[in-house]
Amino acid sequence: MTSLLAISDLHIGYQENRSIVEELRPASASDWLLVAGDVSEKVSDVEWALGLLAGRFEKVVWAPGNHELWTHPGDPVQLRGEERYRHLVEMCRNLGVATPEDPYLTWTGPGGPVTVAPLFVLYDYTFRMPGVATKEEALAIAYDKGVVCTDEMLLHPDPYPTRDAWCDARIAETERRLEARPAGVPTVLVNHYPLVREPTLVLYHPEFAIWCGTERTADWHLRFDAATVVYGHLHIPRTTWHDGVRFEEVSLGYPREWRPRPTAPGQLRRILPAPRPVA
Hints:
- By secondary structure, the protein is an alpha/beta fold.
- Helices cover 28% and strands 16% of the residues.
- The strands form two sheets. A six-stranded mixed sheet has the order 4-5-6-7-9-8. It has a four-stranded mixed sheet with strand order 3-2-1-10, with helices on one face.
- The two termini are 22 Å apart.
- The mean pLDDT is 96.
């Protein structure tokens, strides 16, 4: 059966994860694969992984995670911010991989038609803890607790003054694109971060949620007629429902996280046709 499949947070800087990616294969030659970010910190690794997958799946669709956007000191490609993102987009196009900058594709296989929309939205520090009113206060609490995302050191927003300013620009552009999509066709929205806050409420360190999305996308699954929302970043793979819409967290995660799980690592999540609910 032809399927629309998904995975994220491959983190192939870990050899165990790289080995898992080497074994990823479609069940059908016409399967598509959604990759919801965090392939690796190094451009050459991202190119290797997406090129490998593009050669196996009929179509690969990529949305960037925060790790691809890092300017890591170990990466020979030292581009920053928007320039780095555009470099990754061009690399994907050369591989035949769809990006948030390309025309949205239509999945016409089982469960379709749907518009497959990869997104790049970022975060704006609005997933704050209760009673915390400002970004500055939220960051101070996170630093005090020692819970600080590496983005603060390696994810540069150039030419924007801040990451939340870059997020604001991405929201405006993404809303424009989604509003212009074909009418009457449901969507599969693919973003690295959850579009709603609820999935972050189970984080072991709630302070980390400020790096996990934006309140401004809270109604996108309804506003843009989502059949399913695909995301990663949290490293908590699971299915949740919000306003009757299925949300799929599809991350592989770090070896220390997936080793204790009872399921084999690297299993691709089927997005369409929709899995039958467990009775």
